[in-house]
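ok so i was messing around last nite and threw this chain in just to see what happens. nothing serious, just curious
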Amino acid sequence: MLDALPCAQRIDVYFSSAVNALSRHSHAQQHLGRATIVVDPSGRTSFTLPIAVPHQNVGGVISMTATDSVGNTSEVGNGLATDTLFADGVD
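result:
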């Protein structure tokens, strides 16, 4: 779920092999995918963004940024461990 002002947002997904222990943010080492979504007037939206994580990258971290229609980009978000995201296996 994304909370934002109503507008189009570009979501970029990244892989990283590590997380900064102090900030809990990951580094955007490898770009995995992108989607453009529309945030409704209530400021909320949900979306699905299929990504392909190469097998050798399982064990790293997935994170995202959001960019609004005028080019303002968020900081890299908190990383989600790939071994947690893909606990049931990777197809």
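not much to say yet. The mean pLDDT is 75.
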